[in-house]
Amino acid sequence: MGSAETRLPAPAVPSPVTAEQVGHLSVEVYADRAALGVAAGTAVANRMRELLASQDGVRMVFAAAPSQDELLATLVAARDVDWSRVTAFHMDEYVGLTPGDPQSFGRYLATRLFAQVEPGNVHLIDGSAAPEEECERYVGILLSEEVDIICLGIGENGHLAFNDPPFVDFDDAAAMKAVALAAASRRQQVRDGCFATLDDVPTHALTLTVPTLMAASEAHCVVPGASKRAAVERTLRGVIEPGCPASMLRRHERARLYLDRDSYTEAAG
């Protein structure tokens, strides 16, 4: 378990300013990004406590992106979560980067979460390994038992992990695979400040596929900011189809979508 002495006081839990149900997807809208992150992180921490009270451990998958920062910070601050009984994974990684590379997703999560809470087991994707072999290795660990909780976001183009439209396969037979990154995904990495220029952004990644993401027992999706508004609107109001991979969240029986005022658009009428 991470050291309680180094953690900040837990913030008050905000209430949503509005909420709705879209298919199976529970949607909660908060006043701003900070409130969204605290609410989502608190909900995830509460579920972890509940699960740890009834089973030996919790298996979780995390996303590595600036949109997740407030969620991750809230998890770090959470009290009475026995992280020594948590097995942690992440959902994607750039081809060519090792887990220790400063711009790798593994390093991103290690810095913002894993090094502070010290999960009992952390499994990082090695983007520098041969892609096919690394996918086989990682999936063998990930799918050896059920994933309890997945924490994820939605890309500006509606992607989940690096399953970019329109090439995503909702019935993909592969649990994890190498993919070429869409131009929109690469541009987002620059806008998010993860890379200085488009030329610096890797062109390929390893990603868990949509069926693997959807197989988690429950999903907590955190999507702040005006840059995600169009993708969120398609997720909630559009057809469930590969042109918006995130639309599949509406079919997950235990999924929650956390938005702020900037990323949310009310249903017409």
Low-pLDDT stretches:
1-5
CATH topology: Rossmann fold
Whole-number total of structural domains: 1
The largest pleated sheet is described as:
8 strands, mixed
CATH arch. level architecture: 3-Layer(aba) Sandwich
Q: CATH class, anyone?
A: Alpha Beta
* Widest sheet: strand ordering: 1-2-11-10-7-3-4-6
Oligomer: single chain
What is the number of helical segments per DSSP (H or I, 4+ residues)? 7
What proportion strand?
15-25%
Mean residue pLDDT: 95
- SSE succession: EEHEHEEHEHEEHEHEHE
Give the overall silhouette: globular
End-to-end Cα distance, whole Å, is 49 Å
Radius of gyration: 17 Å
Q: How many beta-strand segments? A: 11
Q: What would you call the structural class?
A: alpha/beta
Residues in helices, as a percent range: 25-40%
Describe it for me?
The chain has helices at residues 33-52, 69-77, 105-117, 131-142, 183-191, 210-214, 229-237, and strands at 18-22, 25-30, 58-62, 86-90, 92-94, 121-122, 149-152, 176-180, 204-208, 218-223, 255-260. The chain has one domain: 3-Layer(aba) Sandwich (Rossmann fold), CATH 3.40.50. The strands form 2 sheets. An 8-stranded mixed beta sheet has the order 1-2-11-10-7-3-4-6, with helices on both faces. The model is unreliable at 1-5 (pLDDT under 50). It is α/β, with parallel strands linked by helices. It is globular. It contains 7 helices and 11 strands. The longest helix is centred in the N-terminal third of the chain and has 20 residues, at 33-52. Helix 1 packs across helix 2 and helix 2 (69-77) runs parallel beside helix 3.
